[in-house]
């Protein structure tokens, strides 16, 4: 939260109430965030995870992030538990909306930007993220739960393991006998059940793991 946004609390903007009260301001904030994300390239962790797909019979990628960095790194069929900045929908009818390719840089009128209207019902388009107080997308949550039930190895990378219900997933995997590997810079509640706790930056650790373990695999990049 920098510049014009530094006096605002992100949690106060990420709610249905905030959108109802001042939709132009909330939409402007999310478009500013989308523009910031588009200027950021995938890091070495995103790239290593995308490369790991070819090293396993099956790899399910579940993320709490709302950016598209995994997709831009080359990962397919990413499960976004908290929605995506790239997938807005109608506030009224729920229909998906295709965003224009243009992403605003500097926003006019103190950060306000009027959201587009739904072609189907005329309702206002809202950001495609899960706001505080909202349920996770049912389809995404079901896919994540099914993956946990059948996985052999569960990597938990760069998360505090404190945002529920997503934080339950690695614990469920551990209970079912999967090998749980945590990659994090600081200790979390998951430390006590993880088979391996790898301390450090996700980009450095995942890149090193890929190079050492899978880098010479004939099917890997």
> Would you give the CATH topology?
Rossmann fold
CATH class categorisation: Alpha Beta
What is the tally of helical segments? Answer: 8
The rough form would be described as: globular
Largest sheet, spatial ordering of strands: 5-6-7
User: What percent of residues adopt helix (DSSP H or I)?
Assistant: 25-40%
Quaternary structure type: single chain
Element order, helices and strands?
Answer: HHHHEHEEEHEHEEH
Overall CATH architecture: 3-Layer(aba) Sandwich
| Number of distinct beta strands | 7
Termini gap? 37 Å
Enzyme class: hydrolase
Keywords: Hydrolase, NAD, Transferase
Protein name: NAD-dependent protein deacylase
Organism: mine drainage metagenome
Q: Brief overview, please?
A:
The protein is α/β, with parallel strands linked by helices and 221 residues long. 33% of the residues lie in helices and 10% in strands.
């Amino acid at each position: 939260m920098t510049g014009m946004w530094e006096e605002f609390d992100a949690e106060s903007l990420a709610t249905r109430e905030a959108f109802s009260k001042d939709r132009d301001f909330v939409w402007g904030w999310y478009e500013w965030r989308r523009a910031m994300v588009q200027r950021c390239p995938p890091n070495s962790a995103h790239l290593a995870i995308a490369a790991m797909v070819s090293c396993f019979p099956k790899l399910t990628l579940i993320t709490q992030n709302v950016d598209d960095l995994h997709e831009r790194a080359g990962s397919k069929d990413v499960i976004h538990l908290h929605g995506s900045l790239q997938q807005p929908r109608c506030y009224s009818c729920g229909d998906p909306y295709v965003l224009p390719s243009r992403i605003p840089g500097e926003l006019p009128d103190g950060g306000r930007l009027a959201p587009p209207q739904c072609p189907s019902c005329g309702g206002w388009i809202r950001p495609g993220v899960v706001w505080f107080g909202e349920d996770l997308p049912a389809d995404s949550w079901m896919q994540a739960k099914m993956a946990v039930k059948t996985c052999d190895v569960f990597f938990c990378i760069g998360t505090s393991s404190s945002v529920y219900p997503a934080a339950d997933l690695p614990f469920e995997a551990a209970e079912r006998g999967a090998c749980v590997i945590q990659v994090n810079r600081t200790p979390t509640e998951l430390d006590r059940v993880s088979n391996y706790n790898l301390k450090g930056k996700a980009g450095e650790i995942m890149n090193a793991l890929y190079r050492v373990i899978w880098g010479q695999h004939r099917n890997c990049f």
